[in-house]
Amino acid sequence: MPLPPPEPRERLHARSVVFEGFLRADGLFDIEARLVDVKDHDYTLLSGVRPAGEPVHDMRVRVTIDRGFQIHAVEATSERVPYPGGCDRITPAYAKLVGMNLVDGFRKALHDAFGGVHGCTHITEMLSYLPTAAVQTFAGLTREDAGERKPFQLDRCHALETSSDTVRRYYPKWYRGAA
After folding, report:
1. What are all long-range contacts of 76-82, with beta carbons under 8 Å and residues at least 24 apart?
2. Which of 1, 14, 37, 48 is the right S-S partner for 57, CB 3.0 to 4.6 Å?
């Protein structure tokens, strides 16, 4: 169902965030993300004016993981930032994420390590979406209900609680009865 029609308005800002998942030749996976902020008008920053349509932020991350969601490598870059020489200096620090697991306390560990002044707000925000981007990357590589282990996505959202009608209908093996 679409949103209801809006009141008359003028767009001021656009943020796009894109995630892509890749299977590498070595059997690992790369999850790449890019965040771009653009103003629809000339934007005066203390570091200078950004003409309408030129990015205020243009940032990318690449995280290499295995099938167990373990992080093997992290690369981050800030191609456009509001404060050159400041914002872009933190990107190498994100390599500290190597060894973490995307589905085992990752978001808390990420924000503990890079929240506030310890990281870039935008890069940290992008990285916080990595677990679900990785899950979606793996989706379809194997049948969801294959094997004896409970499918990963069950009990991780409202619709897929093991006591829900959705699980009763689509994953009957894992249905645990009404709550």
Report:
1. 76/123, 78/120, 78/123, 79/55, 80/54, 80/55, 80/56, 81/56, 81/57, 82/45, 82/47, 82/56, 82/57
2. 37
